[in-house]
Design a protein that fits this description.
Elements lengths: L4 E2 L4 H25 L6 H8 L3 H17 L4 E2 H22 L8 H24 L6 H26 L14 H30 L1
Antiparallel strand pairs: 1-2
Helix pairs in contact: 1-3, 1-5, 3-4, 3-5, 4-5, 4-6, 4-7, 6-7
């Protein structure tokens, strides 16, 4: 077995990956429908949702788990990066943001999927079925790449629209130096979280 890839050959692995993918796509589709209206098309709604890292993480989970459900392979370090991103999405939301966010109705349902169900299910799948990464340093580089790519996207969108989803990216109030400092800390946080999750996974599998 190539340790750089995650196989989904067992029926349990493929079925559970498929269930996660369906749930993730379903929650995203429902959120698009909720946000759409007379003045906002579904396509525009989907575009606006992509301003948030939470949506990036859930969309990545939906796509990669679908790939695995079809019996294909995904790099083990990429699965580690996805699990890290989803863990941080869940922890940051429930630890810092939930006290200021009070969704109701169907928004409350999608919120649970985005911040709890999909992260927990994907991380559990990774722990149970993914082989260990071949190189931890290389895995940490992949883990840090995701938030940095999102940062570039968010800054471009922010420059074009004036909207910044997170305070640590807000060019209206921060200098480039301050943003770079925040991103350095964010990358380090992702690396530390990823290393911890990899260590836990190896301990569990051992």
């Amino acid at each position: 077995m190539n340790a750089l890839t995650t196989p989904a050959t067992s029926q349990t692995a493929r079925l559970s990956a498929g269930a996660i993918s369906v749930a993730a796509f379903g929650a995203l589709g429902l959120q698009i429908t909720i946000n759409s209206g007379d003045d906002l098309s579904p396509l525009a709604s989907a575009g606006l949702m992509l301003r948030y890292f939470t949506i990036w993480g859930n969309l990545a989970a939906a796509i990669l788990m679908l790939h695995l459900a079809r019996g294909k392979t995904v790099r083990a370090d990429l699965m580690a990066a996805l699990s890290t991103a989803l863990a941080i999405i869940a922890v940051v939301y429930w630890g810092l943001l939930s006290g200021m966010h009070y969704p109701t109705g169907l928004d409350r349902v999608t919120n649970q999927f985005h911040h709890t169900i999909i992260p927990a299910a994907t991380i559990a799948w990774w722990m149970a079925f993914s082989p260990k990464v071949a190189s931890i340093p290389r895995a940490l580089i992949v883990i840090m790449a995701g938030p940095l790519i999102y940062t570039a996207f968010a800054l471009i969108v922010g420059a074009a629209t004036g909207f910044y989803a997170y305070f640590f990216l807000d060019r209206n109030t921060l200098s480039w130096g301050e943003i770079a400092l925040y991103q350095t800390g964010l990358a380090a946080f992702f690396a530390a979280t990823g290393a911890t999750l990899i260590a836990i996974k190896r301990l569990i599998r051992r």
